[in-house]
Amino acid sequence: MSLVTTHVLDAARGRPAAGIPVRLESPAGLVAEARTDEDGRVRDLGPDELAPGVYRLVFDTGDYLGQDGFFPEVTVTFRITDGRAHHHVPILLSPYAYSTYRGS
Questions:
Q1: pLDDT tens column, 61-98
Q2: In this structure, what DSSP letter does residue 103 have?
Q3: What's the total number of domains in the chain?
Q4: What is the CATH number of the domain that holds 19?
Q5: How many CA atoms lie within 13 A of 15 on its CB side?
Q6: pLDDT tens per residue, range 2-55
Q7: CA–CA distance, 48 with 96 (Å, rounded to integer)
Q8: Can you tell me the distance from the alpha carbon of 75 to that of 55, in angstroms, rounded to the nearest whole number?
Q9: Cα gap 47→31, rounded to integer Å
Q10: φ, ψ for residue 84 (rounded to 5)?
Q11: What is the pLDDT of residue 43?
Q12: Keyword Hydrolase: yes or no (predicted)?
């Protein structure tokens, strides 16, 4: 399993958000990219070890939310202090709001 995973739940529809492009970035640039699966998850996003530092998950939500979506992109910036510990960073998404948390 990769060190960083994510999950996107469409809170307005009450179901997983499939097909959303996701990028994992470091200050040096792109680390990995993938799309959410039918369960709204990205289980394999990048390496199984990363250097401690600040990273970003960028969710390209524009196509998924369509014209009614206020957020065409969601960026979650987080810090990795243990480069071997699993980091699950999910988002709850709706057309006019999103939230995130450190998952397990």
A1: 999 999 888 999 999 999 999 988 999 999 999 999 99
A2: B
A3: 1
A4: 2.60.40.180
A5: 7
A6: 899 999 999 999 999 999 999 999 999 999 999 999 999 999 998 888 999 999
A7: 34
A8: 10
A9: 8
A10: -120, -10
A11: 94
A12: yes
The amino acid occupying position 4 is V
Q: How far apart (Å, rounded) are the C-alpha atoms in residues 95 and 12?
A: 8
Structure tokens at 32: 């990995």
Q: Which domain holds residue 22?
A: 4-100
Beta-strand relationship, 15-16 and 21-26? unpaired
75 forms beta bridges with: 58
Closest CA to 58 of 83, 41, 80, 33: 33
Q: Is the dihedral of CA 75, 83, 33, 14 positive or negative?
A: negative
**Given the structure tokens 């959410």, which residue do they identify?**
36
Tokens matching residue 6: 């994510």
